[in-house]
């Protein structure tokens, strides 16, 4: 049960992230300035403090992510946000959080790379986001909003998922989602029980002391921990989600996520109007990846075209999903270029012609 | 033989606990603090970590902090502090203890939060985190063990290694021109705005250990009283990596370390306020 | 046919294209429509133009980024050179003739409305309200939203600090609307 009677406001995706975090009951924010996500710390530096929470502008993204690690170890809802170069610096702490099973929400407003890249939108961090990102064998959950409303909604979802699985959850947007404005309906979720009583650190009063760590040196202990994490990741698969648009009778299915998903949708709609049997699958969760949705379409004989704002990353997951029956073509917009619906229609028309 | 993380793995040691109950006819004259677990440590003979742990545990008992304490473990020989202190603990990546502690304390300001860090962890890889946590005046206490080497990884040069001191990565002795001068952390920390207390003490003698406990108490008090950041540097011996006996190691602290790392209180807001008046 | 309009607004930094972009989008939202507003990043930031794109639509909006807009609002010469070729055939272009060489304005392929926005703003009494004059002309030329709806949204996009300027802004909108 949720209260969706909230008011409609006209805000940037970055602000929607901040409001979503507040609605989710986030108590602590730690971050370091980087474009294009600065509206997140800027709005939370006042709004979160007014709500009785803690805001710290850290000395680096390294520190911000480790502050997050510390805060969530006490069972409190906390988050950080950054953009690509900053997220790279956070990978150390994210690996430790995954290893010691700490929940936490990390927002990445993906910008162009590699290196310093540019401050425009891109999806070059797909691999980093969905393959763990830091050292060791782990996964973070990854959800990708494509509208400002989703940016708000997914922050609420991200906190719930993080605590449900005691695992870091990444919200992967980009400079488009972060910088654009749309109407957003604010709503207040019902309070979720994070079930932290069994593990949170709050002082060993009347109970055994607790330890949260990712070091497992005893014989067999690390293997056991990795088995446990694997079982958890397997369990997470049921959270996989995708938006299917006009796929019922589609012969060609375009696969695109985040802002590319919504831009591709414009092209798909126009081609539908022109009579083409084309549809769109927009993965909403990138890890777990909505493999079943794509596998079912492949079994039905669909062909696939993956479109990303990078040189080809998610296409690997699409190919793995459809491999028994099909393959996927790929079209990439280079990070540094700004695509519109027409850019994405050209490869769709090509693919339609390649029957 | 230099210890490394594999050879010091306390798999069995942690499980072992010592029975301290007096045998018939024996009288208990010396007991362990409640905050210290009855566990064998993995520390080498003559290592001062045990002494430092005990001082911390005594203060946790005396100041009645055990049930609200959260320690942030660091990377180095003291990584297993969470096996020896009977309090809640979270492990931070190498050098990030003060950042993780900031997160813990901001989330739970009613808890007693401290880091326990070595010289490599605090003064090298974690320099940014310690400086900024101190400068922000986080209500944290930091126990800083300076033994002038990387102990866990096998005695490599540390940021506090003395000029001329031989280590496995400066076999000819640390050279000022090439490797720079050893860093005096207690003085640097004292210069930062948010710091309420910063001192350097030594664990080489009974007299100095008593003074060390006083300093640690003050560093804990500035947190419990909500005054600011508390910092204590403990000059400590590492006989294994110094290739010395424990007695020689204690002598080295007196003759080589203290002359370069002077003992004393470099900042105490209590004194500052008095002087201000 | 469901209502749909997109517009790229461009001018010098400081001419207030972001403000009128926000205003149009806000008024669209208040009219119960879907809207997007996006300030465009990238090389376009340089070379004398600041620009943003607004989409107003009854249907769900896919792309907020429009390469061939149905309309533009052009406040200076560099913006004309950059965006005029991109306007869809038969599209609408509002041109600030105070700062643009009208000999270069295409009146064949697209429907161009030239308006001396600087002079009209001066007449209204505030030379800085060129943006509002141009938006008023745009509302008239496209009919996408009623003038009154946009005027009523002024108080939501202009900060309280400049609240006293709202009546003048409303006047400037009307002056542009009437001219077109």
Would you write up a description of this structure?
The complex is a heterotrimer of chains A (355), B (277) and C (180). Helix content of chain A is 40%, strand content 21%. The mean pLDDT of chain A is 96. Chain A has two domains: 2-191 and 212-238, Thiamin diphosphate (ThDP)-binding fold, Pyr/PP domains (Rossmann fold, 3-Layer(aba) Sandwich), CATH 3.40.50.970; 241-353, 3-Layer(aba) Sandwich (Rossmann fold). Chain A is an alpha/beta fold and 355 residues long. Chain A has helices at 13-23, 39-50, 61-72, 84-99, 126-130, 148-165, 175-179, 221-236, 258-273, 291-299, 314-322, 341-353, and strands at 2-3, 8-12, 28-31, 54-57, 78-82, 104-110, 141-143, 168-174, 181-185, 188-189, 211-212, 242-245, 252-255, 278-283, 285-287, 303-308, 328-332. Chain B is of the alpha/beta class and 277 residues long. Chain B has one domain: Rossmann fold, CATH 3.40.50.970. In chain B, 39% of the residues lie in helices and 17% in strands. Chain B has helices at residues 11-15, 49-62, 81-84, 97-107, 119-125, 127-136, 176-179, 185-190, 206-224, 239-242, 246-260, 269-276, and strands at 69-73, 88-91, 112-118, 141-146, 149-150, 156-157, 195-202, 229-235, 264-268. Residues 1-15 of chain B have low confidence and may be disordered. Chain C is of the alpha/beta class and 180 residues long. Chain C has a single domain, classed as Pyruvate-ferredoxin oxidoreductase, PFOR, domain III (Pyruvate-ferredoxin Oxidoreductase, domain 3), CATH 3.40.920. In chain C, 37% of the residues lie in helices and 20% in strands. A six-stranded mixed beta sheet of chain C has the order 2-3-1-4-5-6, with helices on both faces. In chain C, helix 2 links the parallel strand 4 (71-74) and strand 5 (92-96). The mean pLDDT of chain C is 94. Strand 11 (211-212) of chain A pairs parallel with strand 2 of chain B.
CATH topology of chain B: Rossmann fold
Strand content of chain C: 15-25%
CATH architecture label of chain B: 3-Layer(aba) Sandwich
Query: So what's the CATH class of chain B?
Result: Alpha Beta
- CATH C-level label of chain C: Alpha Beta
Please report the two chains with the greatest interface, counting residues with C-beta closer than 8 angstroms to the partner's C-beta: A-B, 42 and 41 residues
Helical fraction of chain C? 25-40%
